[in-house]
Specification:
This protein is an alpha/beta fold. The chain has helices at about 15-25, 40-55, 65-75, 85-95, 105-115, 140-155, 170-175, 185-190, 195-210, and strands at about 5, 30-35, 60-65, 75-80, 100-105, 120-125, 160, 180-185. The protein has one domain (about 5-210): TIM Barrel, CATH 3.20.20.70.
Amino acid sequence: MNNLLFITHQTEKYNYLDSVEIALKGGCLHIQLRMKGELPDAIERIALCAKELCNQYKAKLYINDHVEICKNIKAEGVHLGKSDMSPIDARKILGDNFIIGATANTFEDICRFKNEGVDYIGLGPFRFTTTKKNLSPILGLSGYQNIIQQCKEAKIQLPLVAIGGITINDIPYIIKMGMHGIALSSSILTSENPIEETKKIITCINKYKI
């Protein structure tokens, strides 16, 4: 997964679908619907609407955590946290035509998920973020550099997406060191003009992609 992955986030100003539409209007083609703490029925209702929006913009929708919802609404894929269903079990349910991503914090996590057949890794957190509880240890630039080097030495070529408290000023350093993409939420939705901020972020990522 290259470029920008937008992760939905509800704020006082925007609901989940607002945030999806903002990212799409800004040119983002990869949307992860993340609705922590919501009931599955509510998530599926929002997911169906989000899928319709993504179809209009020819974008891909990924469902956070909920494998069955991903299958029911025919999203492009699912993203699994470390405490969610295993990728192996998710693949049994979804088959080979869905994308499966997973959250990793260490090189050992990446090795395990590679063996379990994931398609990409969300690697983080880069720094502290208020959108997640029970954070794993902060990685920062040096952590990313070490893990990227370990992946090269082990000939692991899974796409790595940086996640966790990232701002547009971090992007040049993260992309130049070899990360495949950036996942963002708050830095877009808290900006003065979220649609324009999304455009700026995508332009920045493309400028520094190797």
